[in-house]
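As a warm-up, study this chain.
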Amino acid sequence: MIQKSTIDRIMEATDIVEVIGEFVQLKKRGANYVGLSPFANERTPSFTVSPAKGIFKDFSSGKGGSVVTFLMELEKFSYPEALKWLAKKYGIEVEETVEAVENREEENHRESLMIVTGYAAKFFHEALLETEEGKSIGLSYFKERGFTSDTITKFELGYSPDQWEAFTGRALQDGYQQEFLEESGLSVKRDNGSLYDRYRGRVMFPIHSFTGRVIAFGGRTLKSDKNVPKYVNSPESEIYHKSNVLYGLYFAKKAIREEDNCFLVEGYADVLSVHQAGIENVVASSGTSLTVEQIRLIGRFTKNITILYDGDAAGIKASLRGLDMILEEGLNVKVVLFPDGHDPDSYVRTFGTNGFKKHIEDNKKDFILYKTDILLKEAGTDPIKKADVIREIVESVAKIPDSIKASVFIKECSYLLQIDERALLSELNKMRLAKAKKDSQQMISRHVPVDETLLEEPPVREAKDDASQEKEIIRLLLLYGNRVIDWDGIANTYIGPFMIAELSDVEFENSTCKSFIDIYRKEVENGVLPEEQHFIHYPDKEIVDLTVTLIATKYTLSENWYEMHKILVPDEQVNMKATILGAIFHLKKQKVGKILETLRSELQKTLGEADQEILLNQYMHMKRVEKTISDYLGSVILK
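Now compare it with the structure written out below.
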């Protein structure tokens, strides 16, 4: 349990723009910051951060809340884990009691996996630096590769002892459960049910999540036995999906933003060597084929990818088609090829930082032009092969969503392919039309026919209007509840308590709105005037979602709007009496309307004369109440 005073210090120190900016490329727009949603695939920014209110709102996915909520949504942290992450970032000490073994069972499943992989990373790192076997085998290997002590420490490199149960035995002894050791892939179950170490005798490359937690491992053997796989990687688990992870991204994201470019390499050593050389905007797909999810991860920080290939021409040819999806995601792709016998790791160690940068600058080519060059050389003078090359190149250009950029590439390719530009444009338009038709057909095929029997059901009256009016009350409480009233006949009180008192006879129907009003009322009764931050950081997620939805806005009116367009936008703050009383009495009028509807329904039934008279009196009374409210609304709003 983290004390409230510590939580307050964490929140006071936290800069929401700085924190979210580590995961989303933000641009200032008016008083707010905007960027592409990390929760949805979009090309137009709808993700907004308000530093003044300390909230974010993602209009694509509907998610919103405080910086703590953001970390919980993105990294699946628990509330305490998100606070601890922020505390670590801002150097705030959080006192925690040591958990007993039995308490680990109370951790949720995902967090248990995170805990065991973190424990393993520490075990392997200590085995590398503190054991004779680790020093003589693992540390010697890393030093031979040129990795410094700082790099080894920063990336938490390690060594798994060449024994069957060195790690597993220690983990079980320290109270870690067999279930999580096996599911994380750290241990493997024998036929008799016992466990043994998966990575024994390997140097270890921990794979970090977006927020720096170890979620998986890559283990490299140092043996020359061809029957032993060179690399063994963690299996898929609840915390590790290899298609969604890029090795080194946690350490590279700041540099990627600053350089507005991401270097994409193939292996762990490439990342380590290039990063160590001071070129930190480098990540790896870790030997797997590049995925759309990985491309979108990079796209949060930059629209520019430079792919660094080794000299294997066959491998380059095989990967060309797969790289089309980078273009499809709207990113700019350049390719750099290293001389035969070199990869990024060996080249930067041989020629140093300046030589590495110079080679990239001198040899980088746009992906489309590079692909055209490669395929043309392969086609030679064969006209059939050349026609196939033309179609393949146009297919790649057709994937570029930016029509201006696509037309520039068509012009360049026209020159390289020695074919009329109009012919290429014609082929491009055919492909785009075919794709549009295919997409349309897929949408039609996914359409589910309506069951006509459902149409025979009696219509259900939705409470949309009621919910909207109830939410309007809460919006006003959030925005203006702490303002002092200075209206005719009403003074020396705050808007919040005044509204709560006026609504004491109103029953809220929306469950979240009702909970909000109950919380607000209790705080007022305790002599506290709750402000929006109280609800932004409230433990109940539904309360947080409601709060952020009501106070966040996707658009901000320009300060020069009136000067430029001479259009006056009504300001609800100009006449606060009309705004507040209007909302209260509109809600009351709706509630009265529902009561009248119920009474009318009852009056239509066959009842005794006495019951009929009672209901009629109630109905007439409510009609008088409705008229009073309507008259009052008219006088307040119009004056």
